[in-house]
């Protein structure tokens, strides 16, 4: 710029600023070409977000240089307080002693700082500032601020937010918020099937080996009907030996009883032999009672529920080990397996609706009776919590073994929470927040 007319100089500088294509170009023009408006030796443009943006006489700013670091501290100190929003002349006396010590090293004696919103521009020279200089440089700072804001890259979201200012967009936004807050019943889905409500567990009466399974899986049996028996080989052998020992002990006792008529010493021996004979008789009786228990009978009428007879034939079992159950075919309840992530939505007393695979259009109503506090491993190697539910009264009870999907209802929650709960949980688990 070569004109000394302030008006012409201002118009030329204004044209340069308006023709800039990037915010950094505006900053460079503002700190270097403002000499056409007022004389100064140094000029700095500073931003609260990125620190020193431009220096007069420098093509690039070195962020780690001592000069730039000192300038950043000075601007941040001057940005506080009530006077930070007004243009003002400053000297070293306006700074803390630690900063003022370096003023003479970096800047001339008189400086002028002009705020630009979140930014500020500083001009420094050797002589005091006059009112005319202050007026022109303030207008320059306003134009530079508006130009830098206009050239700043915009986020796609800014345009969308502006569209919300229209009346139609506000109505749509309000409807979206209302729909998102609309209360819905929270629910979870879980695989379920019908299991015996009051089963009779059939256990092994003693240690042994299963010899035969006398019924088929899921066969209907009557009370007292034989279900399976254990191998009798060992027990029958022990009973045979015990009976022989009993016979021998009884023979010895009779001989001793006859001898004590003539021999007084045999009387004491006869008492010992009598006790031994009674002991062997008791052992034989106990073994016979065990042998009578070898064949296990049904405790009540119902279905004999177990997997496969071949899995049990020849298998060693211990006393009290479960072999099968006997259950009423229609005395059933719902057993559901709820995923670990959904168990917080399930509470005892919650309504449960079972949609059977064979009757999807006829739901079965039930009420949650119990919720397992600890997750268990399922056959498909997943962890889930066991939930038991009692079928509603007056409902035709489906037969044992039918499978389907259970919907367990919980508390009422906003629709937006119901839609985004799972994505939020997945995001939290993925990011660890």
From TrEMBL:
The keyword Repressor does not apply. It comes from the Bacteria. Keywords: Coiled coil, Membrane, Transmembrane, Transmembrane helix. SUPFAM superfamilies: HlyD-like secretion proteins. It is found in: Cell envelope. InterPro entries: UPF0194_transport. The keyword Ligase does not apply. The chain crosses the membrane at residues 171-190. Gene3D superfamilies: 2.40.30.170, 2.40.50.100. One of its GO terms (cellular component) is cell envelope. This is Multidrug efflux pump subunit AcrA (Membrane-fusion protein). It comes from Magnetospirillum fulvum (Rhodospirillum fulvum).
